[in-house]
Write a structure and sequence with these properties.
Radius of gyration: 19 Å
CATH architecture of the largest domain: Roll
Low-confidence stretches: none
CATH superfamily of the largest domain: Diaminopimelate Epimerase, Chain A, domain 1
CATH class of the largest domain: Alpha Beta
Distance between the termini: 24 Å
Largest sheet: 8 strands, mixed, barrel
Number of helices: 5
Number of domains: 2
Mean pLDDT: 96
Helix content: 10-25%
Structural class: alpha+beta
CATH topology of the largest domain: Diaminopimelate Epimerase, Chain A, domain 1
Shape: globular
Strand order of the largest sheet: 9-10-11-12-13-15-16-17
Number of strands: 18
Length: 338
């Protein structure tokens, strides 16, 4: 690691979920396509993910973004997402933060009251719309998802330590198993986080072992990212949001309501006829922050009935950083304590 001098970042959070955006010092990520770049980062640059995400510069639940050269002709920027276990295909909370950052940093020049930022993610092109306040500052961000769909409804799996449970599997840029926390006698906002994580993690392992997951566009998108435990509600109003906790990657807890998870939940609700095209639902995280999800338009994803979803939330800046490495630091590569 001694060859690395410094990596600079902008630090943000969305609903309490960290977003560490690399702004300088990262080597070029090679590849003809965004998914090629994702594979290259995993195979050749993973030491830098460890450096930025793991302790002592990060922690078990840190989240990061690596801007890369886009290959989509309409994209204003392209990004890879990184976490404690690798590289995800989509991250809504990060897209919300990236929308603000792209406007504030001059990557996109705003025109009028809303700035449009087109972000190429590994799952596809995502369009963010950034509201501008009267003083010129940026505010609320809404993004339009890639086609979201229900992969499975009422699928039974056997979860070690808990027995048989029924769950749904939805895609909103990443695949999630979704089921009520009540299936385990737990409450999203009332139970200990450790108990929720244990249950969700066990579900993830069970689904990975028992359910074949494939995406119609590319095999690299076909894997279960995590599990979302819900309160069983439909989030029909702002005064009655549906609480959920998303546990993804290596039992990492999303502090936000989870943007791609909201898209997946809307897709599952649409598949069940619980929400109509154009309707809005509200979703609350364990930090009590809220994302809005709106079923924009029905569409297709291969053979699946799908829907595009608009997800809206707020991101905030927390600072900037310049991470350095000393050649005699035996812990320079990073470590994790769980």
């Amino acid at each position: 690691m001694s060859e690395l001098l410094a990596i600079e970042t902008v630090e943000m959070h969305t609903g309490g979920e960290p977003v560490r955006i690399v702004t300088a010092g990262y080597p070029a990520v090679e590849g003809a396509t965004i998914l090629d770049k994702r594979r290259y980062a995993a195979e050749h640059l993973d030491r830098l993910r460890h450096l930025l995400i793991f302790e002592p510069r990060g922690h078990h639940d840190m989240y990061g973004v690596i801007p890369v050269a886009p290959d989509h002709p309409q994209a204003d920027l392209a990004v890879l997402f990184m976490h404690n276990d690798g590289y995800s295909t989509m991250c809504g909370h990060a897209v919300i933060a990236l929308g603000r950052w792209a406007v504030d940093s001059g990557i996109v020049t705003p025109a009028g009251e809303t700035a449009t930022v087109r972000i190429q993610c590994p799952c596809g092109l995502v369009t963010a719309r950034v509201a501008r306040r009267a003083d010129g500052s940026t505010g609320e961000v809404a993004f339009e998802s890639v086609p979201a769909f229900a992969l499975a409804l009422d699928r039974e799996v056997t979860v070690e330590g808990y027995g048989a449970v029924m769950l749904d599997i939805g895609y909103g840029g990443a695949f999630y198993a979704v089921l009520p926390a009540g299936s385990f006698g737990l409450d999203v906002l009332g139970s200990a986080t450790r108990d929720l994580v244990d249950a969700a993690g066990a579900v993830t392992q069970a689904v990975k072992a028992q359910v074949a997951i494939a995406h119609p566009d590319d095999p690299d998108l076909g894997f279960l990212y995590g599990t979302i435990l819900t309160d069983g509600g439909d989030g029909a109003s702002h005064d009655r949001p549906s609480a959920n906790i998303c546990v993804f990657a290596d039992n990492q807890v999303d502090r936000s309501p989870t943007g791609s998870g909201v898209a997946a939940r809307i897709a599952l609700m649409r598949a069940r006829g619980m929400i109509a095209e154009g309707d809005t639902a509200y979703f609350e995280s364990v930090t009590r922050t809220i994302f809005r999800g709106r079923a924009l338009a029905d569409c297709d994803a291969g053979a699946y009935d799908a829907v595009t979803v608009e997800v809206t939330g707020h991101a905030h800046y927390t600072g900037t950083a310049r991470f350095t490495v000393e050649p005699d630091d035996l812990l320079a590569g990073g470590f994790l304590l769980k």
